[in-house]
Target: Interferon gamma 1-like
Amino acid sequence: MNSSHRLLLLCEIWAVTIGWASSVDFVSHNMKEDLQKLKEHFNTSDKALFRDPVFLRNLQDLESRFEEGEQKVLMGELLDVYLSILEDMMNRTEDDNLKRSITLTRNRVSDLRKHHFQSKGHLKTQLQDLWAIETDDPLVQRKAVRELTTVFHKASVLGSKKKVPARRRRRQAGRRRI
Model:
């Protein structure tokens, strides 16, 4: 083996090592085992499950389409739906081993939700109230017309605000003046 091959091999080893060090796996070994049990029990290898994803479509282009705060609200709501699904699955099963796996998985999802995606309860409540408005109700329509000037003005002000890009700090380590 000549020196150029050794250098190439060394660079490849370094690149692989750096890749492993920079990629963090947040899913623990125990959680992977519990999820594997769930996958086997619920037969997730069925070909019908590969078409039209339920949750993954919400994650496509998440970072490019939404600001960080919006991403967190969306992810918090997505985790809430998972918690509800896992709760229902646990209530429907009689198998104690499966219940244990579901409970442990649900607890991990709940901890993630609680520690990183605190509920924006007031925002969620307001959105639910907006979605519940009876748009075909004549009284609601009359009130809407009465309030439109104020709403339109506030929306215009908010929409015209310029986005202030996040400021980046420069490292001054090598640039000290004497």
